[in-house]
Protein backbone atom coordinates (compact mmCIF):
# COMPACT_ATOMS: atom_id res chain seq x y z
CA UNK A 1 0.00 0.00 0.00
CA UNK A 2 2.82 2.45 0.71
CA UNK A 3 3.96 2.90 -2.94
CA UNK A 4 0.34 3.61 -3.93
CA UNK A 5 0.05 6.31 -1.22
CA UNK A 6 3.30 7.99 -2.33
CA UNK A 7 2.16 8.10 -5.95
CA UNK A 8 -1.22 9.54 -4.95
CA UNK A 9 0.42 12.23 -2.80
CA UNK A 10 2.80 13.13 -5.62
CA UNK A 11 -0.15 13.47 -7.99
CA UNK A 12 -1.80 15.92 -5.60
CA UNK A 13 1.34 18.05 -5.44
CA UNK A 14 1.74 18.10 -9.22
CA UNK A 15 -1.93 19.01 -9.75
CA UNK A 16 -1.59 22.06 -7.51
CA UNK A 17 1.14 23.55 -9.66
CA UNK A 18 1.60 24.39 -13.31
CA UNK A 19 4.06 26.31 -15.41
CA UNK A 20 4.63 29.78 -13.93
CA UNK A 21 2.09 32.48 -14.82
CA UNK A 22 3.92 35.52 -16.26
CA UNK A 23 3.92 38.57 -14.00
CA UNK A 24 2.04 41.41 -15.71
CA UNK A 25 4.17 44.54 -15.37
CA UNK A 26 2.35 47.87 -15.29
CA UNK A 27 3.22 51.38 -16.42
CA UNK A 28 3.74 54.02 -13.75
CA UNK A 29 4.26 53.69 -9.99
CA UNK A 30 3.32 50.53 -8.14
CA UNK A 31 2.83 49.54 -4.50
CA UNK A 32 6.07 47.76 -3.70
CA UNK A 33 5.83 43.99 -3.20
CA UNK A 34 2.04 44.13 -3.56
CA UNK A 35 0.27 41.99 -6.13
CA UNK A 36 -3.28 41.26 -7.26
CA UNK A 37 -4.12 37.64 -7.93
CA UNK A 38 -7.15 36.37 -9.79
CA UNK A 39 -8.15 32.72 -9.56
CA UNK A 40 -9.54 30.81 -12.51
CA UNK A 41 -13.32 30.53 -12.70
CA UNK A 42 -13.12 26.76 -12.07
CA UNK A 43 -10.52 27.02 -9.29
CA UNK A 44 -11.16 24.84 -6.20
CA UNK A 45 -13.00 26.48 -3.30
CA UNK A 46 -9.93 26.14 -1.09
CA UNK A 47 -7.61 27.97 -3.53
CA UNK A 48 -7.11 30.94 -1.21
CA UNK A 49 -6.27 28.65 1.71
CA UNK A 50 -3.77 26.81 -0.47
CA UNK A 51 -2.15 30.11 -1.40
CA UNK A 52 -1.98 31.30 2.22
CA UNK A 53 -0.61 28.02 3.54
CA UNK A 54 2.21 28.02 1.00
CA UNK A 55 3.64 31.43 1.92
CA UNK A 56 6.97 31.03 3.70
CA UNK A 57 8.75 34.39 3.57
CA UNK A 58 8.71 37.00 6.33
CA UNK A 59 6.25 39.77 5.52
CA UNK A 60 4.27 37.79 2.96
CA UNK A 61 0.56 37.91 3.70
CA UNK A 62 -2.84 38.24 2.05
CA UNK A 63 -4.14 41.81 2.26
CA UNK A 64 -7.60 41.27 0.76
CA UNK A 65 -9.76 38.37 -0.24
CA UNK A 66 -12.04 39.24 -3.16
CA UNK A 67 -15.23 37.21 -3.08
CA UNK A 68 -17.88 39.02 -5.11
CA UNK A 69 -16.53 40.64 -8.27
CA UNK A 70 -14.16 37.75 -8.86
CA UNK A 71 -12.40 35.08 -6.85
CA UNK A 72 -9.00 36.42 -5.96
CA UNK A 73 -6.81 38.25 -3.52
CA UNK A 74 -4.29 40.98 -3.00
CA UNK A 75 -1.10 40.01 -1.22
CA UNK A 76 2.27 41.25 -0.10
CA UNK A 77 4.76 38.76 -1.55
CA UNK A 78 8.46 38.63 -0.81
CA UNK A 79 11.29 36.48 -2.10
CA UNK A 80 10.29 33.08 -3.45
CA UNK A 81 6.64 33.53 -2.52
CA UNK A 82 5.97 35.43 -5.73
CA UNK A 83 7.18 32.56 -7.91
CA UNK A 84 5.24 30.13 -5.69
CA UNK A 85 1.99 31.98 -6.39
CA UNK A 86 2.78 32.24 -10.11
CA UNK A 87 3.02 28.45 -10.30
CA UNK A 88 -0.31 27.66 -8.63
CA UNK A 89 -2.62 25.82 -11.01
CA UNK A 90 -5.63 27.76 -9.69
CA UNK A 91 -4.22 31.19 -10.64
CA UNK A 92 -5.40 32.94 -13.83
CA UNK A 93 -3.07 35.95 -13.53
CA UNK A 94 -0.82 37.91 -11.19
CA UNK A 95 -0.33 41.65 -11.71
CA UNK A 96 1.54 44.40 -9.93
CA UNK A 97 -0.57 46.58 -7.65
CA UNK A 98 -0.55 49.93 -9.43
CA UNK A 99 -0.99 53.38 -7.92
CA UNK A 100 -4.17 55.30 -8.75
CA UNK A 101 -5.27 58.88 -8.12
CA UNK A 102 -7.99 61.41 -8.66
CA UNK A 103 -7.31 64.13 -11.19
CA UNK A 104 -8.74 67.61 -10.98
CA UNK A 105 -7.97 71.33 -10.91
CA UNK A 106 -8.74 73.08 -7.65
CA UNK A 107 -9.57 76.75 -7.39
CA UNK A 108 -9.95 78.90 -4.28
CA UNK A 109 -11.84 77.66 -1.23
CA UNK A 110 -14.20 80.65 -1.20
CA UNK A 111 -15.62 79.62 -4.55
CA UNK A 112 -13.89 82.34 -6.55
CA UNK A 113 -12.04 81.69 -9.78
CA UNK A 114 -10.35 83.44 -12.65
CA UNK A 115 -13.63 82.87 -14.49
CA UNK A 116 -17.12 82.83 -13.05
CA UNK A 117 -17.80 79.64 -11.13
CA UNK A 118 -20.72 77.57 -12.36
CA UNK A 119 -22.86 77.08 -9.29
CA UNK A 120 -25.98 76.54 -11.41
CA UNK A 121 -24.86 73.44 -13.27
CA UNK A 122 -26.87 70.94 -11.25
CA UNK A 123 -28.89 73.17 -8.90
CA UNK A 124 -32.04 71.28 -7.94
CA UNK A 125 -34.11 74.41 -8.49
CA UNK A 126 -33.35 74.22 -12.22
CA UNK A 127 -35.18 70.95 -12.77
CA UNK A 128 -38.81 69.98 -13.00
CA UNK A 129 -39.47 68.08 -9.78
CA UNK A 130 -42.18 66.09 -11.52
CA UNK A 131 -39.32 64.15 -13.10
CA UNK A 132 -38.29 62.99 -9.63
CA UNK A 133 -35.40 63.51 -7.23
CA UNK A 134 -33.86 60.05 -6.97
CA UNK A 135 -35.89 58.89 -3.96
CA UNK A 136 -35.32 55.19 -3.36
CA UNK A 137 -31.95 55.16 -5.13
CA UNK A 138 -28.59 54.62 -3.44
CA UNK A 139 -25.38 56.11 -4.82
CA UNK A 140 -21.99 54.70 -3.81
CA UNK A 141 -19.07 57.11 -4.20
CA UNK A 142 -15.79 55.17 -4.41
CA UNK A 143 -13.36 57.97 -3.69
CA UNK A 144 -11.71 59.91 -0.80
CA UNK A 145 -14.73 59.73 1.50
CA UNK A 146 -17.53 62.20 2.22
CA UNK A 147 -17.84 65.00 4.78
CA UNK A 148 -21.12 63.70 6.19
CA UNK A 149 -21.78 66.80 8.28
CA UNK A 150 -22.15 69.14 5.33
CA UNK A 151 -25.61 70.68 5.34
CA UNK A 152 -26.23 69.97 1.67
CA UNK A 153 -26.59 66.24 2.38
CA UNK A 154 -29.50 66.77 4.81
CA UNK A 155 -28.68 63.57 6.66
CA UNK A 156 -28.83 61.41 3.51
CA UNK A 157 -25.07 60.67 3.46
CA UNK A 158 -23.57 57.82 5.42
CA UNK A 159 -20.23 56.08 5.76
CA UNK A 160 -19.93 52.69 4.15
CA UNK A 161 -16.40 51.37 4.61
CA UNK A 162 -12.76 52.42 4.36
CA UNK A 163 -10.04 50.46 2.58
CA UNK A 164 -6.31 51.13 2.69
CA UNK A 165 -5.91 51.89 6.38
CA UNK A 166 -7.07 55.50 6.09
CA UNK A 167 -9.19 57.43 8.58
CA UNK A 168 -12.97 57.40 8.27
CA UNK A 169 -13.12 60.98 7.04
CA UNK A 170 -12.64 62.93 3.83
CA UNK A 171 -9.37 64.78 4.34
CA UNK A 172 -9.04 65.60 0.65
CA UNK A 173 -12.37 67.05 -0.42
CA UNK A 174 -12.72 65.41 -3.82
CA UNK A 175 -15.21 62.81 -2.62
CA UNK A 176 -17.35 65.41 -0.86
CA UNK A 177 -17.34 67.72 -3.88
CA UNK A 178 -18.44 64.98 -6.28
CA UNK A 179 -21.00 63.52 -3.85
CA UNK A 180 -22.69 66.90 -3.46
CA UNK A 181 -22.94 67.29 -7.23
CA UNK A 182 -24.98 64.10 -7.26
CA UNK A 183 -27.32 64.41 -4.27
CA UNK A 184 -26.54 67.68 -2.47
CA UNK A 185 -29.18 70.35 -1.97
CA UNK A 186 -28.36 73.37 -4.17
CA UNK A 187 -25.65 71.35 -5.94
CA UNK A 188 -27.13 68.13 -7.34
CA UNK A 189 -30.34 66.98 -8.88
CA UNK A 190 -30.93 63.69 -7.00
CA UNK A 191 -31.80 65.38 -3.71
CA UNK A 192 -33.94 62.46 -2.57
CA UNK A 193 -31.28 59.79 -3.05
CA UNK A 194 -29.05 58.38 -0.34
CA UNK A 195 -25.28 58.45 -0.78
CA UNK A 196 -22.66 56.15 0.71
CA UNK A 197 -18.94 56.87 1.15
CA UNK A 198 -16.58 54.09 0.10
CA UNK A 199 -13.11 55.43 0.90
CA UNK A 200 -10.28 53.91 -1.13
CA UNK A 201 -7.93 56.91 -1.48
CA UNK A 202 -5.86 58.83 1.05
CA UNK A 203 -5.98 62.51 1.91
CA UNK A 204 -3.51 63.20 -0.92
CA UNK A 205 -5.96 61.72 -3.43
CA UNK A 206 -3.84 58.67 -4.20
CA UNK A 207 -4.11 54.99 -3.41
CA UNK A 208 -3.57 51.46 -4.68
CA UNK A 209 -5.56 49.47 -7.18
CA UNK A 210 -5.96 46.68 -4.62
CA UNK A 211 -7.82 49.07 -2.29
CA UNK A 212 -10.09 50.26 -5.11
CA UNK A 213 -10.99 46.69 -6.05
CA UNK A 214 -11.78 46.00 -2.39
CA UNK A 215 -14.11 49.00 -2.47
CA UNK A 216 -15.81 47.78 -5.64
CA UNK A 217 -16.09 44.28 -4.17
CA UNK A 218 -17.71 45.68 -1.01
CA UNK A 219 -20.10 47.85 -3.02
CA UNK A 220 -21.13 44.85 -5.09
CA UNK A 221 -21.72 42.81 -1.93
CA UNK A 222 -23.94 45.57 -0.51
CA UNK A 223 -25.87 45.72 -3.77
CA UNK A 224 -26.51 41.97 -3.62
CA UNK A 225 -27.32 42.00 0.13
CA UNK A 226 -29.93 44.72 -0.41
CA UNK A 227 -31.70 42.65 -3.02
CA UNK A 228 -30.36 44.48 -6.09
CA UNK A 229 -31.95 47.70 -4.83
CA UNK A 230 -31.66 50.48 -7.42
CA UNK A 231 -28.10 51.73 -7.14
CA UNK A 232 -25.35 53.62 -8.93
CA UNK A 233 -21.63 53.60 -8.20
CA UNK A 234 -19.24 56.34 -9.25
CA UNK A 235 -15.52 55.99 -9.68
CA UNK A 236 -13.49 59.07 -10.59
CA UNK A 237 -9.91 57.86 -10.47
CA UNK A 238 -7.49 55.94 -12.58
CA UNK A 239 -3.95 54.98 -13.38
CA UNK A 240 -1.68 54.73 -16.38
CA UNK A 241 -1.77 51.84 -18.78
CA UNK A 242 -4.10 50.65 -21.48
CA UNK A 243 -5.63 48.06 -19.18
CA UNK A 244 -5.72 47.18 -15.52
CA UNK A 245 -7.26 43.70 -15.81
CA UNK A 246 -8.29 43.27 -12.14
CA UNK A 247 -10.03 46.65 -11.79
CA UNK A 248 -11.66 46.39 -15.21
CA UNK A 249 -12.76 42.82 -14.47
CA UNK A 250 -14.24 43.95 -11.16
CA UNK A 251 -16.33 46.67 -12.80
CA UNK A 252 -17.52 44.37 -15.57
CA UNK A 253 -18.69 41.75 -13.06
CA UNK A 254 -20.60 44.31 -10.97
CA UNK A 255 -22.22 45.83 -14.05
CA UNK A 256 -23.21 42.40 -15.36
CA UNK A 257 -25.06 41.85 -12.07
CA UNK A 258 -27.08 45.04 -12.54
CA UNK A 259 -25.06 47.68 -10.68
CA UNK A 260 -24.81 50.90 -12.71
CA UNK A 261 -21.34 52.47 -12.94
CA UNK A 262 -20.42 56.03 -13.92
CA UNK A 263 -16.70 56.54 -14.58
CA UNK A 264 -14.74 59.74 -15.09
CA UNK A 265 -13.00 59.76 -18.46
CA UNK A 266 -9.78 61.18 -16.99
CA UNK A 267 -7.95 64.48 -17.17
CA UNK A 268 -4.83 63.80 -19.22
CA UNK A 269 -6.09 64.93 -22.64
CA UNK A 270 -5.31 61.48 -24.03
CA UNK A 271 -7.45 58.75 -25.65
CA UNK A 272 -9.60 56.84 -23.17
CA UNK A 273 -8.53 53.54 -24.68
CA UNK A 274 -5.21 53.86 -22.84
CA UNK A 275 -6.77 54.80 -19.49
CA UNK A 276 -8.25 52.36 -16.98
CA UNK A 277 -11.04 52.06 -15.84
CA UNK A 278 -12.30 54.68 -18.31
CA UNK A 279 -11.90 52.02 -21.01
CA UNK A 280 -14.53 49.70 -19.53
CA UNK A 281 -17.03 49.68 -22.36
CA UNK A 282 -19.90 48.48 -20.16
CA UNK A 283 -19.62 51.52 -17.85
CA UNK A 284 -20.85 55.05 -18.53
CA UNK A 285 -17.60 56.91 -19.25
CA UNK A 286 -17.91 60.68 -19.15
CA UNK A 287 -15.86 63.49 -20.70
CA UNK A 288 -15.89 67.14 -19.63
CA UNK A 289 -16.97 70.25 -21.51
CA UNK A 290 -16.75 73.95 -20.62
CA UNK A 291 -19.61 76.45 -20.39
CA UNK A 292 -19.68 76.71 -24.19
CA UNK A 293 -20.13 72.94 -24.55
CA UNK A 294 -16.64 72.64 -25.99
CA UNK A 295 -14.37 69.80 -24.91
CA UNK A 296 -12.38 70.90 -21.88
CA UNK A 297 -8.68 71.17 -22.70
CA UNK A 298 -7.79 68.64 -19.99
CA UNK A 299 -10.46 66.04 -20.75
CA UNK A 300 -9.63 62.66 -22.18
CA UNK A 301 -11.50 61.72 -25.33
CA UNK A 302 -12.12 58.88 -27.75
CA UNK A 303 -14.44 56.01 -28.44
CA UNK A 304 -15.04 55.04 -24.82
CA UNK A 305 -16.63 58.41 -23.98
CA UNK A 306 -20.39 57.79 -23.89
CA UNK A 307 -21.48 61.39 -23.31
CA UNK A 308 -20.01 64.71 -22.26
CA UNK A 309 -21.09 66.87 -19.32
CA UNK A 310 -20.12 70.16 -17.61
CA UNK A 311 -16.77 69.88 -15.85
CA UNK A 312 -15.11 73.31 -15.81
CA UNK A 313 -15.21 75.68 -12.82
CA UNK A 314 -17.91 73.79 -10.95
CA UNK A 315 -18.91 75.02 -7.49
CA UNK A 316 -19.89 72.39 -4.93
CA UNK A 317 -19.61 71.38 -1.27
CA UNK A 318 -16.26 71.13 0.47
CA UNK A 319 -14.70 69.89 3.68
CA UNK A 320 -13.83 71.87 6.80
CA UNK A 321 -17.19 73.25 7.85
CA UNK A 322 -20.84 72.40 7.10
CA UNK A 323 -21.30 75.27 4.64
CA UNK A 324 -17.92 75.20 2.84
CA UNK A 325 -17.78 75.30 -0.95
CA UNK A 326 -15.04 74.91 -3.52
CA UNK A 327 -14.60 75.43 -7.25
CA UNK A 328 -13.10 72.50 -9.11
CA UNK A 329 -12.68 71.31 -12.68
CA UNK A 330 -12.37 67.78 -13.98
CA UNK A 331 -14.09 64.83 -15.56
CA UNK A 332 -14.95 63.86 -11.97
CA UNK A 333 -17.39 66.76 -11.90
CA UNK A 334 -18.81 65.77 -15.28
CA UNK A 335 -19.26 62.17 -14.13
CA UNK A 336 -21.12 63.38 -11.03
CA UNK A 337 -23.47 65.42 -13.22
CA UNK A 338 -24.36 62.27 -15.16
CA UNK A 339 -24.70 60.14 -12.00
CA UNK A 340 -27.25 62.67 -10.72
CA UNK A 341 -29.26 62.39 -13.93
CA UNK A 342 -29.20 58.59 -13.81
CA UNK A 343 -30.22 58.48 -10.15
CA UNK A 344 -33.35 60.47 -10.98
CA UNK A 345 -34.06 58.26 -13.98
CA UNK A 346 -33.85 55.14 -11.81
CA UNK A 347 -36.46 56.48 -9.39
CA UNK A 348 -39.21 55.62 -11.86
CA UNK A 349 -38.13 51.99 -12.13
CA UNK A 350 -35.17 49.69 -12.52
CA UNK A 351 -33.42 49.40 -15.83
CA UNK A 352 -30.47 47.22 -16.73
CA UNK A 353 -27.14 49.02 -17.08
CA UNK A 354 -27.32 48.54 -20.84
CA UNK A 355 -30.85 49.98 -21.03
CA UNK A 356 -30.05 52.99 -18.84
CA UNK A 357 -26.87 53.75 -20.78
CA UNK A 358 -28.83 53.67 -24.02
CA UNK A 359 -31.46 56.01 -22.56
CA UNK A 360 -28.70 58.40 -21.52
CA UNK A 361 -27.40 58.53 -25.08
CA UNK A 362 -30.84 58.62 -26.68
CA UNK A 363 -31.75 61.72 -24.65
CA UNK A 364 -28.43 63.52 -25.14
CA UNK A 365 -27.95 66.46 -27.50
CA UNK A 366 -25.41 66.34 -30.30
CA UNK A 367 -23.92 69.77 -29.61
CA UNK A 368 -20.40 69.27 -28.27
CA UNK A 369 -17.66 71.08 -30.18
CA UNK A 370 -13.88 70.75 -30.27
CA UNK A 371 -11.07 73.20 -30.70
CA UNK A 372 -8.95 73.24 -33.83
CA UNK A 373 -6.13 71.65 -31.82
CA UNK A 374 -8.26 68.61 -30.92
CA UNK A 375 -8.03 66.83 -34.26
CA UNK A 376 -7.73 63.39 -32.64
CA UNK A 377 -10.76 64.04 -30.44
CA UNK A 378 -12.80 65.27 -33.40
CA UNK A 379 -12.09 62.06 -35.30
CA UNK A 380 -12.76 59.63 -32.47
CA UNK A 381 -15.31 61.14 -30.08
CA UNK A 382 -19.06 61.44 -29.80
CA UNK A 383 -20.64 64.90 -29.77
CA UNK A 384 -23.38 63.92 -27.32
CA UNK A 385 -23.99 66.22 -24.34
CA UNK A 386 -25.83 64.63 -21.40
CA UNK A 387 -29.33 65.95 -20.67
CA UNK A 388 -31.81 65.21 -17.85
CA UNK A 389 -34.55 62.79 -18.86
UniProtKB/TrEMBL annotation:
Residue span, Peptidase S8/S53 domain: 134-366
Organism lineage string: Eukaryota, Fungi, Dikarya, Basidiomycota, Agaricomycotina
Domain Inhibitor I9, chain residue ranges per copy: 34-101
Name of the protein this chain belongs to: Serine protease
Active site (catalytic residues): 143 (charge relay system), 174 (charge relay system), 332 (charge relay system)
Signal peptide extent: 1-18
Cellular compartments per GO CC: extracellular space
Gene Ontology molecular function: serine-type endopeptidase activity
